[in-house]
């Protein structure tokens, strides 16, 4: 996200996690539970016009600070998806801000939402295949720093993607298509199962063991089945 500096008027880019929420995306000014709001938040207060880059889309948006009951309701949903937000709030006396980035009129580049979701899934499939090949080739003893980073980056990327779906995409689809309720419930359970596999993979990467390749294979098996099912069931409705 690129903001305009409150004091300098210069563009400032911050790399943030974001959560889809209907037509908008949400960002959280946690600052790791620090005592002050992050600089980008102050920039938004001074000038709410921003540029959002997701890696697939780039588009202008307007920042809307969520207040009072709306902020509390959204923050509670975020904590339900990721308890880390609640831990950050417990570390500080300030109310951690939640900001909605609302796209300005005009379509972003990058294709439809269905095309975007499929592209994201294709990327995860490709990266997992590359990681498996590297692990199989190098073995536990040859697990290099870059491979460790690749594994951990993939884990974080999957976590963020699934959190975004659970918080934004799935509730929106369930509201629009009640017939998908059971399907979405199944996908949510699969998210939880994959989260456990991701945690196990992170442990194996931090302390390599002979079971590392088998753990990668377990994740691949579960994730590919999940992605295939999600695409078959949800893409026709996007």
TrEMBL record:
<dbReference type="GO" id="GO:0005886">
    <property type="term" value="C:plasma membrane"/>
</dbReference>
<protein>
    <submittedName>
        <fullName>Deazaflavin-dependent oxidoreductase (Nitroreductase family)</fullName>
    </submittedName>
</protein>
<dbReference type="InterPro" id="IPR004378">
    <property type="entry name" value="F420H2_quin_Rdtase"/>
</dbReference>
<dbReference type="GO" id="GO:0016491">
    <property type="term" value="F:oxidoreductase activity"/>
</dbReference>
<comment type="similarity">
    <text>Belongs to the F420H(2)-dependent quinone reductase family.</text>
</comment>
<dbReference type="GO" id="GO:0070967">
    <property type="term" value="F:coenzyme F420 binding"/>
</dbReference>
<dbReference type="Pfam" id="PF01814">
    <property type="entry name" value="Hemerythrin"/>
</dbReference>
<feature type="domain" description="Hemerythrin-like">
    <location>
        <begin position="114"/>
        <end position="238"/>
    </location>
</feature>
<dbReference type="InterPro" id="IPR012349">
    <property type="entry name" value="Split_barrel_FMN-bd"/>
</dbReference>
<dbReference type="InterPro" id="IPR012312">
    <property type="entry name" value="Hemerythrin-like"/>
</dbReference>
<dbReference type="Pfam" id="PF04075">
    <property type="entry name" value="F420H2_quin_red"/>
</dbReference>
């Amino acid at each position: 996200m690129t903001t305009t500096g409150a004091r300098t008027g210069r563009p400032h880019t911050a790399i943030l996690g974001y959560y889809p929420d209907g037509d908008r995306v949400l960002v959280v000014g946690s600052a790791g539970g620090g005592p002050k709001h992050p600089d980008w938040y102050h920039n938004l207060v001074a000038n709410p016009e921003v540029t959002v880059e997701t890696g697939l889309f780039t588009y202008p948006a307007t920042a809307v600070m969520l207040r009072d009951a709306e902020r509390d309701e959204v923050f509670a949903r975020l904590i339900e998806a990721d308890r880390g937000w609640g831990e950050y709030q417990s570390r500080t006396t300030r109310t951690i801000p939640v900001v909605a980035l609302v796209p300005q009129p005009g379509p972003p580049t990058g294709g439809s939402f269905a095309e975007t979701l499929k592209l994201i899934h294709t990327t995860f499939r490709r990266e997992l295949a590359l990681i498996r090949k590297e692990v199989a080739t190098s073995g536990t003893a040859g697990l290099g720093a870059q491979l460790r980073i690749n594994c951990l980056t993939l884990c974080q990327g999957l976590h963020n993607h699934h959190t975004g779906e659970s918080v934004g995409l799935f509730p929106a689809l369930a509201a629009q298509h009640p017939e998908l309720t059971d399907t979405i419930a199944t996908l949510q359970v699969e998210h939880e199962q994959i989260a456990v596999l991701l945690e196990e993979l992170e442990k194996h990467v931090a302390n390599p063991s002979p079971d590392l390749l088998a753990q990668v294979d377990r994740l691949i098996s579960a994730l590919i089945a999940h992605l295939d099912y999600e695409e078959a069931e949800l893409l026709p409705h996007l």
